[in-house]
Amino acid sequence: MNPNRERRKINKVRKKISRGRVINQDILKISVFFCVLAAALIVYLCVFLTFESGSIINNTYNKRSESFKKVIERGSIYSSDGTPIAYSENRDGVEVRIYPYGNIFAQVVGYETNGALGLEASYNYYLLTSHTNMFEKIANEFKGQKNPGDSIHTSLDRDLQMYISDLLEGQKASAICIDPTTGQIKATVSKPDFDPNDIQYIWDDIISDEENSPLVNRATQGSYTPGSTFKIFTLLEYMREHPDYDNYYYNCEGVLEGDGYTMSCIDQTAHGGETLEDAFAWSCNLAFADIGLKLDIDQFIASNSNLLFNRDLNVDIASNKAIFSLQKTDSDFMKMQTAFGQGKTLTNPLHLSLVMCAFANEGVLMRPHYVTKITSPSGSVVKTFKDKEEERLCTSSEADAMNRYLRSVVTEGTAFCMAYEDYTAYGKTGTAETKSDKEQNIDLSFFVGFAEKDGQKLVICVNIEDTTRTWMSAVDFAHEIFNYYFY
Amino acid sequence: MTEILLTGSKYLIIILFAYFTYISFRVQRDAPEEKKKGSYILQRVFLLLIHALAYLCICVNIIQNPDIGLTIPKVLGFYAGQLVYLVIMSILIPSFISLSKGINNVLCMFLAIGFIFQTRLDFDTSVRQFFIVLFGTAAFLVFVFFCKRAKFLRNLTWIYCIVGMALLLLVLILSRVTKGAKLAIDLGFFSFQPMEFVKILFVMFVASAFHKANNLKTVIITAAAAAIHVLIVVFCRDLGSGLILSIIYVLMLYVATRKVRYLFIGAGGFAAAAFAAYHLFSHVRVRVQVWLDPWADIDNKGYQIAQSLFAVGTGGWLGSGIFRGSPNHIPVVSNDMVFSAIAEEMGAIFAILLILLCLCFVLMMMRVAIRVNNSFYKLLAFGLGTAYGVQVFLTIGGAIKFIPLTGVNLPFISSGGSSMLASMVFIGIIQALYVISEADVEHEREMIAQGADLADFSGFEHIKRQPHHQLKTEETVDTVTHIPAEERIKKVDVEDKIRHIDPDDF
């Protein structure tokens, strides 16, 4: 036979033989591939259950919490000194939720029937999760008993909260206190409020009470015209765009008339010739209107977005965004109005106090939070929420400059009442004119600021929604709170 | 007392199922069937125990909670029917007909889980489903007998292709859009989904085409036919099935031609197609967006996956117990989302074991593919195993948000008549291939005993007996020294044979 033909034939045979075997190798490879796919699914499922499912299933769209309630007795909520401010008790086989301080923690701790509110809502899953040990769990399951749920520990300062609640009683107002060095929220009061112990009986009344809307946590969910407190943002932006801001000079005549509009300072006071610091301390609207026209609006929008406008505030209870909606195409009138705090801008005490936290902490905002840790029924720590940096809102030199200005508001401006206290206070007052539902002009009063003494710092934002109910303005309330806290 | 019963059953089911899964992997080892007999019996006992315990839980819950709306006699009657079926299917049929007991036991386990969960989710549908299973079992038996005898099956290449395409065109023309896709032809009493059968036809087409030849011409022709299949399916907006068909084709192409470049071409083509689909079809974009962030549109598009994640997350590791969860909040739970329902009520441990059991099922089919000699059968078993594996991956991956939802279901467990029928046919073919592979292995064993040479175990039985001294080349040596463990020939024997070969012969 021809050797070449012979070889070709052999090669052909050889190829076919090896093919059958190698096909098997390829099938094995694909089988390994399927093993990898299955492993990926299993790993993903485990990761999901261990790390993610907790926050995911804690969602109002998950209608299963009813089924949790059948097997778990809701855990307790503690204030910073370890006093229970909400706990469950078994009364004749029925689980009853008890709030020993009644209305004092109303909106911040919230309630868990009729929907849920506050910390009860956002930590629903943790309160209905039990880290009792496995054997006890199985034993309870066999006995048909409920497992005790985990407890949450908050940073709420019980005494401070009670004091502020008393102070603001009868007002339509809110106040929030934050420790800027840790981000822990010490108190959150919103008035009018309600007693969560009676929620089932008073439910119909309070949801129909649109005049007072007691369910709204005004400190985190309010939407208010910022008034003069917005000058903080205008000032910071002006400093950023004009490094020679110390040379600013404006002559205020009390009233400014332009193309078909009239603008004035409060009570048409003529502030006269003033520097930037004077204008800020005296809260001169016309000077800030003038500054508003000198700003690069695009940059202003970007900076304000960095200062938490139009963003989720990322606190662990429900909150509303602060809105800044000035456009480059808006009229000069609108730009001027916006610059001193009228216009379409909306804010709330939480937003203002977070910005103040950054100024009080060298420009760095610590993650604002209520809950510090979660413990199992036996007291061992399940999870801690550490204090950590959220983000930097401004440079530390900007924060220093802002603090100088905020201090001058206290030493020679509208917050003069705190000038001679033992603590060093900083802040900005504000009054905004808004129209009520009945088309009446009402004044909103704001104070946002912080004070320090012996290394302790506290940021406060107080908002009085209806100043006709009291002779005190927000700054006076804040003064009282600082006095209580530091003495 | 009842709580003790329910809790005890729940944990016992998980333990039994874990052991069942372990045995299922174990029976695939290479040992004589006689040695595995005990394992098979244990599997059947566990299977019937799990089924009984689950129905015990169902009954206790029905007594405790009248709102469920079922009566004990109704459920017990249904249970008895299932029990008879499972006994016949798992014990009687394998003792009269030769088939793989391992595959059969796992199949019965899937069917039992399907029965339990369909009963729990919707009793009326589950009764219907049960009758479809009976019908499917008849089809299964027919295919077991028919396939192992019908040698002409390997030559019907173009008939598979044309029938498959015709069925798909029929869907495209006749069916109305439901759930955003054209899936079913309404036959009045039965809503027929041809896609389930087209998958099998498609695998048979590709296997027979490559059985005849694996040259470039075949590659091009089959690629064109596959593309037409996939295009029609895409026009029906049934993207999950389109994906399954393409993956089956690429993997079969790779195995048939042994060219890694086809895998890369396939992956590249897939990436391009995914890119094009993302930009051309709004519903693809929606699926991807919902996958990336279901919470953004939780009221509408993200609702299903969000509810599925709630179910899996809420169930936790040990599950809420049957009838103690709320899987009915998930849309289409009995079909695409049955995995989430199982994970919620039986627990994630059970769900993970179920994934492992599905993997075991795939490996069992791959084992058949490896052991069978004829290349048509090899490719057929491989293709069907791949189809099953990919479908399971897409369903489970979709339900736990590992990948975007594709709208395919879990074979043997999800509700759906066509799918169940097609699945039973498919497992019938696999069982037939198993019988053939056993015969092949037996044949090889005898040949070795008679001192036959390498060429007889080529995997291509039509090439017979070349004198072994002609086989020596470097490549042959190379191949034979890398024999997979599944091969029947002892490595020592092979090396012995190679030593006999004199290089000077060439």
Structure report:
The complex is a heterodimer of chains A (487) and B (506). Chain A is an alpha+beta fold and 487 residues long. Chain A contains 17 helices and 19 strands. In chain A, helix 7 packs antiparallel against helix 17 and helix 12 packs across helix 14 (332-339). The longest helix of chain A has 55 residues, at 3-57. Chain A is globular and about 110 Å long. Chain A starts with a helix and ends with a helix. The model of chain A has no long low-confidence stretch (mean pLDDT 87). By secondary structure, chain B is mainly α. Among the domains of chain B are: 150-280; 454-505, no CATH class. In chain B, 71% of the residues lie in helices and 2% in strands. In chain B, helix 7 packs antiparallel against helix 15 (375-399), helix 10 (260-280) crosses helix 11 (282-292) and helix 12 packs parallel to helix 13 (338-346). In chain B, 49% of the residues are buried. At the A-B interface, helix 1 and helix 6 of A face helix 1, helix 9, helix 12, helix 14 and helix 15 of B.
